[in-house]
Amino acid sequence: MAEANTRRRARGGGGAARRAERTAVRIETAKYIERNIPNFEILNEEALEIIENNAETVLEEIGVNFVDNPAALERWRDAGADIDGERVRIPRGLARELIKTAPSHFTQHARNPEKSVVIGGRNMVLAPVYGPPFVRDAQGGRRYATMDDFNKFVKLAYMSKWLHHSGGTVCEPTDIPVNKRHLDMLKAHMTLSDKPFMGSVTDPSRAQDSVEMCEILFGKEFVQENTVMTSLTNINSPMTFDDVMMGSLEVYARNNQACIISPFIVGGAMAPVSVAGTLTQVLAEVMAGVAYSQIIRPGAPAIFGAFVTSIDMNSGAPTFGTPEAAHITYGAGQLARRLNLPYRSAGSFCGSKLPDAQAAYETANSLNMGLLSGVNFMLHSCGWLEGGLVADFEKFVMDADQLGVLHSLAKGVAYDENAQAMDAIREVGPGGHYLGCAHTQANFKESFWKSEVLDYKPYETWQEEGARDTRALATARVEHLLANYQQPQMDPDTAAALEAYIAEKKASMPDAFA
After folding, report:
1. DSSP per position, 415-472
2. Its pTM surpasses 0.90
3. Which is it for strands 240-241 and 229-235: parallel, antiparallel or unpaired?
4. pLDDT in the model for residue 24
5. What are the distances in angstroms from CA 209 to CA 57, 213, 247, 382?
6. Quick one: which H or E segment has residue 367?
7. What does DSSP assign to residue 48?
8. φ and ψ of 82, to 5 deg
9. N or C: which end of the chain has fewer CB within 10 A?
10. 119: helix, coil or strand?
11. Rounded to a whole number, what is the largest CA-CA distance in the chain?
12. What are the pLDDT digits (tens) for 442-477?
């Protein structure tokens, strides 16, 4: 377990020091998950080969659009693609060949080196919800997000033991001008936390600002030689790459920063209703996007993304935690591994308006499929509500707590001498109990996962304490974490340089709210 640099230290020695040690606020972050369990593979070899062949046919015969981006069209032409207007047709095998230079795994460095993460292989990195314009809590209800809300979510992510990553746009702070809010959001991630974070993708210039702020934080040479940001590049499914997202991808790839190449698909609306058809489109879109990143800079880190939901055919609303979404998530994981790319998918997905039973069922389904499908980077792992329109404070800590279950499941089953527990079985014998035996006493502290939110007390105690439901318990958890937050230290010169950069950038342009 890593401990924050801001841990309180006593000034005296002896008993005072020991008392300070016991009462200090400890900010622990679990290491990223290293799976010791098998991935669930839902597709057989025949199905995989059919989908891969069909995806190559899509790229070669149908093609993809790169809109409002003449430079991208020229790059594709130089790489060997056929260009017809804004349509790019990629000869069979070309995208797959270009993808070979993308790394199978990479390290994203945090400013606290103990919290750097390795994305790829059998690892899984957990990051919070991304993008909601609204927030909700038990006191204020549903409302537009503000910068104060954003800062609170960054603090909660920093304080949450099972989260490895600070994320990106954990909510959209609507009280800050659109053209300037990325500066405040990045500053929050850089100063209020010391975990890894994501860069801005809403405009290529904002991606460049993200790179330049990281050069202040990490040093220019370090940024060019190492990955310090991950960014989310959504594809406008079906098969359209817009100039804003591609412009941001170009900035990040050129500067050796990681891009999640992720189709954004609601099955039945933006892709076929069938699982195999959707997987074909997902694979074709990802291959085109990752290949383009390698045209920009061979070796630039890229992540195979799959954000796929089904649709309620009565209302047109997206649905989450469904078996069809699980089938696609499992299958996309297999396709990503065959391309030797890190995989992003799953999260705390739900369509519920409140952190209620529907939210819990759908979220549990989504989180578990993420673990079993081999996801390496799980964006939206906590806080997601209302189909991604809302970042909910109570659900954030409820989900973050449940991420501990994924850590425990991923360990697999130990079978060493201690785990076999033969000494305990011999000691207790028929008719006894294990509560007081030596093996239990030696192992009980680490044997079982323990929730920091849920209530396991007897009914009478629960009633005496106010008969609180899970949401009320989560409200108390939010208040506890924020009350005990301690900002990680930063070099004063670095902090001043960031402030100066942001002030200069904001002064260089008028406010824009569109």
Report:
1. -SHHHH-HHHHHHH-TT--STTSHHHHHHHHHHS---SSS--S-HHHHHHTT---HHH
2. yes
3. unpaired
4. 44
5. 38, 6, 13, 27
6. helix 357-372
7. H
8. -95, 125
9. C
10. strand
11. 80
12. 999 889 999 999 999 999 999 999 999 999 999 999
